[in-house]
Each structure stands twice: as C-alpha cells, then as structure tokens.
Amino acid sequence: MKLLAFLFISHACILSVLPVSSFAPPLKPYSPSSTKLHGNGNSFGKSFRITTYGESHGGGVGVIIDGCPPRLHLNREEIQKELDRRRPGQSRITTPRDEADSVEILSGVDPGSSLTLGTPISMIVRNKDQRSKDYLENDMSLSYRPSHADATYDAKYGVRAVAGGGRSSARETIGRVAAGAVAKKILDIDNKVEILGYVSKVQEIGCDVDPDAFTLDDVEANIVRCPDQSAAETMLARIDEIRKTGNSVGGVVTCVARNVPAGLGAPVFDKLEAELAKACMSLPAAKGFEVGSGFEGTMLTGKEHNDEFYIDPETGATRTKTNRSGGIQGGISNGETIIVKVCFKPTSTIGQLQNTVTRDGQEAELRGKGRHDPCVLPRAVPMVESMVALCLVDALMSQNAQCNTIQLDGGQMPNPLGKTAKVEGFDGVVKKKETTRYNVGLNVSEE
C-alpha cells in the first residue's frame, strides 16, 4: 500500500510540473471502449424515435422507426400516399427528376395481418433516376455551390458527396415523410388529430386562409398548394417568372394541428414549441420558425395579446377566446389549434452564373447543373406536416408514459381544457365566480 501511495503521489507531482506543451496528442485514434458514442444528427424523437439513412445518389433512402406501438394496422399504400405528395416531378414548378418513390416495408409489420409488431419498422425507397454525371462531369465537382452545404460538409468531414449533395439533399426527407405517415395515423386514432400544411407566402405574396376551416382538398386543388385559389394564381405566376430566368424563390409554409389534446409538452427545455422548432428547422432550406402570433405578436401589448379564458357553453370545457398563443402556453399544448410557420430560403442551386471558390482555394465562377426545384415550398408542405406529426406523437407517448401511469379520480382533476374536451353531464349553464379586485400597481415582474 505504501508503494502504491508513493507511486500515485510521484505521478501527480510529475504531472503538476510538466508544461502544457509536453502533452502531445495521442498517436493512435481515440478508442470509445468505455464511452458510448451516438451518431450525429441522424435521429429524432425520444419515445417515438426515427433514424433516416441514405444519400441522394446512393442506392436508396429510408427510415427506421423505433417505439411504434404494436397492433397498429399499417399498409404500404398509406405510406405511399404521403410520399406521392412529396415526390419530384409533380409539376413544372418542382424538380423534373423522375422518381416514383415506391416504398418498401422491410421489417416491423406482419405481412399477413398488416399489424405492427412493436419492433423496429424499416422502410426504404430505392433511387432509380439519379444522374450523377450532372454533378461529376462539370465544375460542380470542384467548386462549392454558394449557400449550399458543399463547403460546410467538406469543412466538417473532409469529404463530401458531390453527386446530389448526399445527406444535404431534400431527398433525405423521404424517410421523415414515411415515418410521418405512421405518426399521423397514431394521432388520428388517439384523438382525431388532423395535421395540414399549406403555402402561405411566396416572397411578399400572402393569402387569406381560415386555419380551422380549410381542407386537404383545398390544399391539393392547385400545384402551389395554397388553399386561397386567387392567391395561388398570383404565387404561381411569380414562381414561373423566376423559374424562366434560371433563378429560385422562397416563402413560408403554415401548418396547423387540429384536435391536439391539452397537456402535451413539458416545461423548460422540452417545451412543445421548442421541440416543434427543432423539428421544422431541421428541414433542408428552413430558415425561420414562428408559433402563434410569432414576431407580429411583439407589436401588441400584454392586454391585446393575451388569450382570455372562457367556458365553452356547449361542452363546459375551458377554452381561449383567441389563439395568439398558437395552441401552446408555457411549453404545453392548451387544446386549441396549434399553428406554426416555417420560412424557406430560395433553392441554392440555380442556373445563373455565380462567384465561388474551388476546394483547393481558387476563385472561380459556377453555373448550377442538375434538376432542382425553382421553389421548394409545394414539396415542403408534406415535409413540415410530417415533422409536426413526429413531434406531436413523441410528446403524446411521453405524456402517456409519465402522466397517465397513475390515474386520478374526477375530484382531483381540473376542469377539462381545450377544443376537444368535454364535461360529462354538462347542462349548458356556465357558472360565474366573483373575482377579487386587486389594487393597480402590484409588482408582477416575476410570477
């Protein structure tokens, strides 16, 4: 023991006097034998977790879903329906790449009964129409596309998938949309949750849409995917104008989630709007996120902005008169319609000449080649819907795991909250309670 103590003290003394420069980096790669390392940025969710895989010009792209409840009836056609809304070649304002995006379910679903098994669900869409020579046989193999992920991927990994951009391609979102179809079905079964997105702005061209009234048919009635048909025509004219010049244009996708039950989300770091923001901002070309009143809400006073509560005379549930909160308060859903907006930049790869640099540090000029969307918005609609669905189903399953384990009797529960809530036996009589009037001037800077 004395010898061990002496060796320890001697070793500590030597370390304490060695200069920092004496510590050379290890000669061998670090071995993670005692540390669990996680892959970077390919997975999303906690209770309902997805991992996407594949590159734009590789053999295929897909997703693995872990945590899907068992006994859910799921068939390929339901997944394909959502992928068809996302696939390329839909119209003149989307990329002409000709892909059927035909999905294959490899595991996790019983082929006989079409019921999920509770085990990981693996799905793949094989690439059929990749044209790598569009990227490899011209200057794009040497030069970085401005505002694309070329330079940053190279800086991070020291290598990049030149053909199609690899994981930075919007083709990666196939896995998200496939998983989103499963999430949508679970949400529909649980509380008839309906998630719908639409293009609400192209550049400065906006629209007038009632978030509680428009339908999927309204969205799909035109190739822009804007339920306001008059505004859609103006938007389409702008996209066409930009497309013919070899340029691109951006805008905003609005997504609503109806019939979301109150209570989803968590305080502090896992606020529902924070999770939704991460989900939506992880999409390619996403540059901004708003929930409810968003940035415009900063122009109002507290009195103007607050959503006052009332008792619904039909259900007896606690509701809000307005919905500037966008269905979320304190990081937790309040049972009203959730409304989020995601802004997308113009597509980076364009047909006009731009200044750039080569990988070895020489200035150059570049004209983008290949097949690209002049406006990502129409195809981004199902992508945003899917990320909102994935976020909500994950929050729903987490809520069930934590807060529905111990059931409380009716006397311990508050009055039901939200649009879909209902008081059993409510007779339509709204009770009034006298409120205490406090003196003006109380310090309410902190609660």
From TrEMBL:
It catalyses: 5-O-(1-carboxyvinyl)-3-phosphoshikimate = chorismate + phosphate. Its cofactor is FMNH2. It comes from Triparma strigata. Keywords: Amino-acid biosynthesis, Aromatic amino acid biosynthesis, Lyase, Signal. Residues 80-101 are annotated as: Disordered. This is Chorismate synthase. Reduced FMN (FMNH(2)). Residues 1-19 form the signal peptide. Pfam families: Chorismate_synt. Its EC number is 4.2.3.5. Pathway: Metabolic intermediate biosynthesis; chorismate biosynthesis; chorismate from D-erythrose 4-phosphate and phosphoenolpyruvate: step 7/7.
